[in-house]
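Progress note, project year one: complex with alpha-L-arabinofuranose.
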Amino acid sequence: MQGKLTIDPSNQIAKVDDRLYSSLIEHLGRAVYDGLYDPDNAKSDENGFRQDVVKAIKDLNIDLVRYPGGNFVSGFNWEDSIGPKDQRPTRLDLAWRSIETNQFGLHEFMKWTQQTGTRPDMAVNLGSRGIDAARNLIEYCNFPGGTYWSDLRKKNGAEQPFNIKTWCLGNEMDGDWQIGHKTAEEYGRLAHETAKVMRLVDPDIDLVVSGSSTREMATFGSWEETVLDHTYDDVDYLSLHRYYDNEENDLHNFLAKSIDFDEFISGIVAVCDAVKARKHSDKTLNLALDEWNVWYHSHKQDDETAPWQNAPHLLEDHYNFEDALMVGTMLITLLKHSDRVKIACLAQLVNVIAPIMTDDQGIWLQSIFFPFMQVSKYGRGIALQPKQESATYDSKDFKDVPYLDSMAVYNPDTHEVVIFAENKGEEAMDFTTTLTSLTTTDLIEATQFYGYDIKQTNEDQRMQIQPNDHVSLDQGTLTTTLEPLSWNMFRIK
Ligand code: AHR
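Model obtained:
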């Protein structure tokens, strides 16, 4: 089988936004408690922050961390999570039917972002609450001082404002599972009024309005149109969420779902631009794909988990090798849409549908950690328009699926061109990349991730990225073999 990628450095998609490599920490299961915060664990520092988790997050080069949810935020009283820990109330978390002790809250999160080198992406509760709670929260976080809420922040130990830049106006408000679910009309009005008030407190914030929870929602498309009718001028990003599964155990159909991902993003871009045209607006609205991943392995176990526990084992998918290939092809799709997708949050980060898992002894890295780490580290710079030739296959739901999925990014700081390539086929592929008008001579690194059973998971930590020693580079043409079902990266200069 043959695969060819032609790249012309002058044919550029966009500068890749650093926030394309963001994530989500939700008060859910063992993400916070037993995950990043575990005061009794020997691996934690004096704040209770697990240092092995901090290191792994740094290895992933995560930019924004969306917080505190997810569905959780729609029933959350942010005031419960500040002040002396022994005075914070224990509450029922109705979203996940768990117990929330509030021992990790706003100040702890802000301190943790500093330690991890990440930045906050704060969600406000537009489910059970609304404008008033949102304006108080932003006053608490971003106002310098001299008012009730900003002085309370100082009293609680933060003299300087947190200056949180990015704010989400609620979460998945289109879903009837959401606490305080609303119609598009109701949510659009509320989001508009909340945005107005939040900007009165701090005009410099970026706001993300909630789009569709999945492409399958009956309101998909019309939700965005109505919500943007109310909020187009108020917000900076429209959010969208997408999770994939392989419930039907059909590898080729599973990996072909990157086509659905691509169409999903293009469809939402089209809706944004239609609203723009209708409003005669000069502003182009970008997207925040603020939840994306594979999610399904834990569904059955979660259905059987007893409610009202502290830090229950929820959404603990153990990812296998085919999931890593799926995450790889989704990352390539995100890069292809980097002209409009400016924020993307791998959901989530620790223990809950996560690349990083903890137990009392330490951490283990899931299969999906590896492609994410590589793209997050090296997929920085300018995304180049890929021109690709590949044999195709038909699967249950998709036609003409290329076996090859590939993409290149040029980094002007390092002068490197980095190529990501996935072979979705079960045969080896002769792969050629030609870089027109660029005389690259040096191969900096060539790696491959392959050879595992597609159902193999990584609790034993045997998975690793391996070098590819069979690459030739001659006058701008790279030639190699992509192993069957493999994820590959090439760095050339
Ligand atoms: O990430 C898990 C959940 O998925 C989030 O809480 C919710 O926003 C989405 O449905």
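The chain has eleven helices and 26 strands.
The CA atoms of residues 221 and 267 lie 8 Å apart.
No further modelling is planned for this target in the current period.
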